[in-house]
Structure formats: C-alpha cells, structure tokens
Automatic annotation (TrEMBL):
A double ring-shaped homohexamer of HslV is capped on each side by a ring-shaped HslU homohexamer. The assembly of the HslU/HslV complex is dependent on binding of ATP. Keywords: ATP-binding, Chaperone, Cytoplasm, Hydrolase, Nucleotide-binding, Protease. The lineage of its organism: Bacteria, Bacillati, Bacillota, Clostridia, Halanaerobiales. Residues 50-364 form the AAA+ ATPase domain. HAMAP family: HslU. Gene3D superfamilies: 1.10.8.60, P-loop containing nucleotide triphosphate hydrolases. This is ATP-dependent protease ATPase subunit HslU. It comes from Halonatronomonas betaini.
Length: 475
C-alpha cells in the first residue's frame, strides 16, 4: 500500500472498472490517507484521525461493489460485503449487526494464515515428503536411520572385548554399513521419483481427521461471542478429534500432509493477533443496499424497523468495541463504504447521525452504449476474454469483431432503457444468449477460428429484442 499513490490506485482500478472517475478518486484518497495516518509520529493526533467513510449513490450494475472489492484486493485489506437489507427481513431472528465485524475478523484470519502458510511452504513440503516416504518405505526415514545406526554402532558402557571380538565386530559393522548404505540409496531413488511425480497416481492409506462437526445447539451465538468463549476450544478435551483411515493418491496425500505440517509450523495465537490488528487498522466493510433501510419506520408491516437497523449500525460505524471469540475488536478505524441506488429514497432519509458518518458522497453515472463497448473490450477480465478462454478449451478460437461488440453494447443500452436498468449486468445475459448455440454445439464443431460479427449478433437477438414482453423475461 505504501508504494501506491492515488493516481496509481486509479490506474489499477481502470483496468477493471470503466468510467466512474469520481468514485475511483474518492476511494484512492481514502486508501492513501490510511498510509499517511500510519506515518504520523504524534500518537495523540494519530488516534484522532478517523477514516472518511464513503457513500456511493447510483443504479445497480455500474461498478459500486467492484470498486470496493478491487480496492481491498489492491491494498491487501480484509474485506467483506454485507447487504444491510437482510437485517429488515420479515421474521429475522438471525445474527445481529455486530456479526459483520466478526465475519471481517474471520476473513482476516484466513488471509494471515494463508500468508504464514506460504512462508513455511518449503519446510511443510519437505516434511510431507518425509511422511509419504515413511509410508512407501517403512523404517527408512532419516530419523529411523539415525536411531538404527546409533544402536548398531554403539556398545554398552563398560563392555570389554578382546582383539578377536573386535575383529568380528568390525566385520559385523561393515555388513551393517552396507545395509544402511543400500537403504539410503533406495530412499534417495524413491525421493527422486516422488519429486518427479512418478508415484502421484499410486494409492496409499493415510489417517485423516473426521469431518464430523463437533457442534452444540445454541439458539443465538451472539451472546457466546460477546463473552469471548470459543466453544470448540472449551470442549476440545471432552470431544477430541476423531481420525479415520482413508485411501488417497500420493498426490492427494501430499496436499493433505503439507496442510497439516503447515498448521504445525505456524502459531495461531500470532495469526489472531496480526489479524485483529489488520482488521482494526485496515479493514473495509462494504454496506450494500443501504437505501433499503433509509426512511422512518412506518405503522404498517411486520418487518424490523428500518430506522432501528440504522441505529444498530450507527455505533459500529462511529467506533465501538465488538467482542468476538478471538478477543475485542475496535471498529473506530475500519473504513465503511456504503452504496445504494436510492430510487425511492435519498441519503437525506437516513438518520442524521448516520449521514454524518459518511462525509464523502459520490454519484455514479448510468452506463451508456459507449461504456458497454469499452467494458467488452478493455478490462483485463472483459466478458469477451472470459468466453474466449472458455471455448478455447473446446478447440475453438472465437473472435469478436468491432461491429459485433458495438451491436452487443447497443442491445444492452436499448434493453436497459426499455426494461429495468441493471447496468453492466445486462451484458452477462446478452452474451449468454449470443453464444448459447455455440456453447451447446462446441464439442462437435470443427476446431479453429470462429468469427462473431454484427450479423451473427442480430440473428441471435433480434427476435427476442423485438418482442418487448419476451425480452423482459429473457434478457
């Protein structure tokens, strides 16, 4: 993160997201401000600087979620997306709003664990190979050889022998040396074959932990987490892990053993401490569909009060301590990015306290035909590139002409105007329809290059688009 200037952040986001320059600029500044805060030497000032949370306003499918997700990936920050509308569902009796922080911490723990596992990757792989060799060649591990040779060559203390016995012992030692050398050479040959993948398809029997979960029925886990109790740790001695014998290939065994050995080499307490710190300093929570909880509660309807949900979320956004089974998490410096279409409401319908916690507001624009064409051509994960990669597996090299891309973009813009505007997501449904026949026939088609032009797109879509009622359901 320290190497990325705001301009460089925007340039990276441009690789995946078209248009929406104002939103990209806002999140790039927010990311850089985190780096700046870390470098402040005055701890009193540092503690007072809180993230400037962002509220994105715009229709669905214009890049709100993608901007937040790509930003988190770029910064290597823990990130989760929460649809806040779920807290207003009828009959909702599930997890409380603080669960978003617990989920973020779980995400951070997985991230840090993966990082630490990569650091011990080589040692874990070496240990995994040793375990496989012990199964393939029992009694020939390095540990066994050392212990065996020590028993063979050491005499008991105070044991006296005459010259004849000494000569006999030398002969015996010579035979034992030859045996050890043969075992060592055999072991080295097996190790070379193992590394070359010669045994990958061979089946061996190993012990694995049973997947049967150790569970206890709890009606609400919020109270347990608030007390900081890890039920699995608490009951670990009473409900020990069960193992079972399982036949797997050597390749599968290697993966299982590497994971097990990596777990032994890393310190989970250290991982949890790092993850908590990362959540508190770098965490990003994306609050989607915040417009669905905008507005005052009404007298009718059984759902949970929308204003009540806002008031539940407010302390977390303001900065509070959330208790988890891994310890307390301070939310004061977590960056919150909220988003909503605000078709039937406005940001002013949010309670004033919550409005004040999202000082940066950016409006994302609807996508035009030209934007759709750029989306199909430019991004590194463009749909045209994805479908081309998919069909290459069938031996087909599909090529989209400029006229075909323009035609698809035109249909997307037209249907968004005629029906519900779902932004760039419309391209997914149109591309599926355009390539439906090719995807179905691909295994039996002649291999080689296949050109998709405007005429092909028109033939695939014209009948559906002309029938407005039909296009409403299909596209």
């Amino acid at each position: 993160m320290s190497d990325l200037t705001p301009k460089e952040v925007v340039a990276e986001l441009d690789k995946y997201i078209i248009s929406q320059d104002e939103a990209k600029k806002s999140v790039a500044i927010a990311l850089r401000n985190r780096y700046r805060r870390k470098n402040i030497s005055d701890e009193n000032i540092k503690d007072e600087i809180i993230p400037k949370n962002i509220l994105m306003i715009g229709p669905t499918g214009v890049g709100k979620t993608e901007i937040a997700r790509r930003l988190a990936k770029l910064a290597g920050s823990p990130f989760i997306k929460i649809e806040v509308s779920k807290f207003t569902e009828v009959g909702y009796v599930g997890r409380d709003v603080e669960s978003m922080v617990r989920d973020l911490l779980e995400t951070a723990i997985r991230m840090v664990k993966d990082e630490k596992s990569k650091e011990v990757e080589k040692e874990a792989a070496r240990r995994a190979k040793e375990r496989i060799l012990e199964i393939l060649l029992p009694g020939t591990s390095k540990k066994d050889e050392t212990s065996t040779s020590s028993k063979q060559f050491q005499l008991a203390p105070g044991f006296n022998t005459d010259t004849e016995d000494d000569e006999k012992d030398k002969e015996d030692d010579s035979e034992k040396n030859k045996l050890v050398e043969r075992q060592q050479r055999r072991r080295e040959r097996f190790l070379e074959r193992l590394e070359d993948g010669y045994f990958d398809d061979k089946e061996i029997e190993i012990q694995v932990e049973s997947k049967t979960p150790k569970t206890i029925d709890i009606f609400s886990n919020a109270g347990v987490e608030e007390m900081g109790i890890n039920m699995e740790d608490l009951l670990g001695s009473l409900m020990p892990s069960k193992t079972k014998n399982k036949k797997v290939t050597v390749a599968e065994a290697r993966e299982i053993f590497e994971e097990q050995e990596a777990d032994k080499l890393i310190d989970m307490d250290d991982i949890i401490d790092i993850a908590r710190e990362r959540v508190q300093e770098e965490g990003i929570i994306f609050l989607d569909e915040i417009d669905k909880i905008a507005g005052r509660e009404s007298d009718s309807g059984p759902e949970v009060s929308r204003e009540g949900v806002q008031r539940d979320i407010l302390p977390i956004v303001e900065g509070s301590t959330v208790f988890t089974k891994y310890g307390p998490v301070d939310t004061e410096h977590i960056l919150f990015i909220a988003a909503g279409a605000f078709h039937v409401s406005s940001p002013a319908d949010l309670i004033p306290e919550l409005q004040g916690r999202f000082p940066i507001r950016v409006e994302l624009n609807s996508l035009s035909k030209e934007n759709f064409a750029t989306i199909l051509r430019q991004p590194e994960n463009a749909l045209t590139k994805q479908y081309r990669a998919l069909l290459e597996t069938e031996g087909l090299d599909i090529v989209f002409t400029d006229s075909a891309i323009d035609a698809i973009a035109g249909y997307a813009a037209q249907i968004n105007e005629q029906t519900e505007n779902i932004g760039a997501r419309r391209l997914h449904t149109i591309m599926e329809k355009v390539l439906e026949e090719i995807s179905f026939e691909a295994p039996e088609m002649d291999k080689g290059e296949l050109e998709i032009d405007a005429d092909y797109v028109d033939d695939a879509l014209a009948s559906v688009v002309q029938d407005r009622d039909l296009s409403r359901y299909i596209l």
